[in-house]
């Protein structure tokens, strides 16, 4: 690897002049600075940012703005597991993580915690989108802070990277799976869990698009309160059956799939009404093993969290480039392969 001494020799300047250009301090004539940068590029020189930070005693704090861990049936606990593993891996690099949890069903809660995150003077932020207007307002205020967005790859805000699945294509895949399960002249339903955001809508759109040219299956749209109790989902499922006696399949657009699975089991409709949904949380895995849920689509929340912190580390600490979009695999999980997904994060991060 090229050294500062080599750069100085080839640029015909002192080591001190090269150091001032690298660290952007002191006065250097523009033509000299340009000559030094050209030599650095020719030699593929990259400054040892980490060593410099150690000398300065700098600790980097990354803020994480995400829903309360128990919401969405505990889905966010998986994300935090990945974030903690990343923090542990980067401990020697002087990286720390600070959490800002908001209630995803409250716009005011998001606004409050987003402001706390901005006031905390962090070096970077890992954020999952909240209520649309509040989220865009927050992102406009965060223009001086490096931001990585996770949970979606569809965003019109300025960020250094976004991490998640192709939501539309995962919805198309869900449609394909139900098409394999149900008979001709059947009805299927898609349930959008409220509050609806971009990735939920795109899953639903992808699902509907799959059936658009298939005349043998009709698609019906429903919405449910993601924070609803058992009675709420009982009434919803009962209404769906009443309105469509040919209903043979249901697609749930987030981790609350088990709430519909419980109604299918209660009414003894296993194998008669097929169910596809998302996420390897405990309740969903239970119904998958029992055959009530046919397939789950995993979006790897722990890996999203892990990669999010690492993207901030590369950008902020190493001054390195990161991919603008990092797509997660769209994994299909059935009862026949669920045992091989229980601790898959351990294998990846070990």
Task: Report on the architecture of this protein.
It is a single chain. With 350 residues, the protein is of the alpha/beta class. The protein has three domains: 1-40, no CATH class; 59-165 and 301-329, Response regulator (Rossmann fold, 3-Layer(aba) Sandwich), CATH 3.40.50; 167-298, Rossmann fold (3-Layer(aba) Sandwich). Helices cover 45% and strands 19% of the residues. It is built from 14 helices and twelve strands. The strands form two sheets. The protein has a six-stranded parallel sheet with strand order 2-1-3-4-5-11, sandwiched between helices. Strands 7-6-8-9-10-12 form a six-stranded mixed sheet, sandwiched between helices. Helix 6 runs parallel beside helix 7 (132-141), helix 8 (167-181) crosses helix 9 (198-211) and helix 10 crosses helix 11 (257-266). The protein starts with a helix and ends with a helix. The model is unreliable at 343-350 (pLDDT under 50).
